[in-house]
Amino acid sequence: MRRLSSLILAATALTLTAPAAFAADAERNDRLYDASGASVAKVNRVTENGDLLVIYKGKVRVIAASTLSNDDGKLMTSLTKMEIRRLD
Fold it and tell me: What is the pLDDT of residues 59-82, one digit of tens each?
């Protein structure tokens, strides 16, 4: 029985891993950089699912958590500025 409960606990821990934004250590007011390394905007909000809300070109844009990474202490997205501009 202990072995089964340990197995269930391990499986639960794997399914409760942090979203990509949290893995990238995204916080409010962090600077976000695009795929080329150019500065995009400051993070306005981190949602519960790890997506970022930023204001870019006068509009609120949602940056998906799946595009985020932390490269040498920089919060990076795999999106380009052109792709970000097309987001709603």
Answer: 999 999 999 999 888 999 999 999
List, as one string, the DSSP characters of the chain. Answer: -HHHHHHHHHHHHHHTPPPHHHHTT--TTPEEE-TTS-EEEEEEEE-TTS-EEEEETTEEEEEPGGGEEEETTEEEESS-HHHHHT--
- Mind listing the pLDDT tens digit for each residue in 12-35? 554 444 444 455 688 999 999 999
Q: Which CATH architecture has domain 18-85?
A: Roll (2.30)
Per-residue burial over 5-34, b = 16 or more CB atoms within 10 Å of its CB, e = otherwise:
eeeeeeeeeeeeeebbbeebebeeebebbb
Q: Which has the closest alpha carbon to 70: 18, 28, 32, 13?
A: 32
Residue ranges per structural domain of the chain? 18-85
